[in-house]
Amino acid sequence: MDPGSGIHAGQLSEENMSYAMPDSDAVVNAGQKRSASSALEGESPNKKSKNDDDDSIHEGNGYSQQHYEDNSLIQDQNVARGYGMQKGDGGYGGGEGGEYGVSPGRKTGRMAGAKGYSLQEIQALFSFIRQKPPVDNSDWVSLAMRYNRWAKENKKSPRTGRGLKDKLRKVAMVSKEDKLKHVASLTPIQQDARDCIKCINIETSRLVDANEKEEQRPHVDMGGLGDGVLRDRTNEMFATFQPSQLSELADLLRTVLHDARQTSQRLTNIEQMMETLKGAGDCGIDNLSEQDGKIIE
Questions:
Q1: Do the beta carbons of residue 127 and residue 2 sit within 8 Å?
Q2: Cα 216 to the chain's mean position, in Å?
Q3: CA 291 to CA 289: how far, in whole Å?
Q4: pLDDT (tens digit, 9 = 90+) per residue, 178-200?
Q5: Residues facing 88 on adjacent strands
Q6: Residue ranges of domains in the chain
Q7: Helices 188-216 and 119-131: crossing angle, nearest 10°?
Q8: Measured between alpha carbons, how far is 102 from 1 in angstroms, rounded to an integer?
Q9: Where are the alpha helices (DSSP H) in the chain?
């Protein structure tokens, strides 16, 4: 099931989502002719070629490279159709010039950066990113784990965190320097990818701001006031609170919290000391060292 949009593996139309079977005789014939041509030239039709764009983990599953080449073609067409595109002179790009991100003359209708992914997989990736925008590498690893659980349930290929991150960048047309390429007319899939990047940037900025505020927060010295005095001051401020006192109230509450934490730590240290004294009493008080009885402030 799609984690965000509620899409089930079998809900979308067979034309858009199925990539187990070709949707036209032309795709089958193209694959057969390609295999026959390779055989005539002395090249094995199952010979694997390096493909940096496809990050799928296919090793050890028994399928030939030809199988994935044919399926890649079908997936590309499905992604284009799933975003409402029609096959024109520029492929599945809406006509000449490839205004939807498809170069003129390309027959596959491949969306920019969407190679090797079906529409359902792209939407699942976007959904996981929106649920919890990944900020660092560990977040991407965690996202990949959630994505792969979904992929297993929906019989899709597992992906790596780095692969998912690169795929998002390619679909959104972002360079390695994290700069968006200018596109006159963005496709829906490209716009969705860029919206996901905005979510990541907002989350990153929020965490950075929170860390900076934590470091720059001034320490409020209450002059060694006890818990009772702090409680009385807090109650008094709440009783006569004015909006202009919001900053002062926030400082007071932070001080109360800080003092409570220190009190808790002192109680923990006292309990540890009592346990040490109890153990020392069992084996003789003379064996208690100065270090064992020291209270750590």
A1: yes
A2: 29
A3: 5
A4: 667 677 777 888 888 888 888 88
A5: 91
A6: 14-205, 227-287
A7: 20
A8: 29
A9: 14-17, 25-40, 65-82, 119-131, 137-153, 161-171, 188-216, 227-239, 246-283
Contact 74, 82 (CB under 8 A): no
- In contact, 157 and 57? CB cutoff 8 Å: yes
Distances, alpha carbon 52 to alpha carbons 113, 124, 173, in Å: 12, 22, 16
146-182 as b/e: b if 16+ CB within 10 A: ebbebbeebebbbbbbebbbbbbbbbbbbeeeeeeee
For every residue of 177-244, DSSP letters joined together read: TS-BPP-SS--HHHHHHHHHHHHHHHHHHHHHHHHHHHHHPPP---SS--HHHHHHHHHHHHHT--GG
Total Cβ atoms within 10 A of residue 106:
14
CA 15 to chain centre: 29
Structure tokens at 64: 């030939």
Q: Token pair of 48, please?
A: 């694997």
Tell me which residues of the chain have a pLDDT lower than 50: 4-24, 26-28, 39-40, 48-54, 56-61, 68, 82, 84-110, 219-226, 285, 287-297
Q: How many Cα neighbours within 13 Å face the side chain of 190?
A: 22
What is the signed CA dihedral for 68, 73, 76, 82, rounded to 10 degrees? -110
Global pTM exceeds 0.70:
no
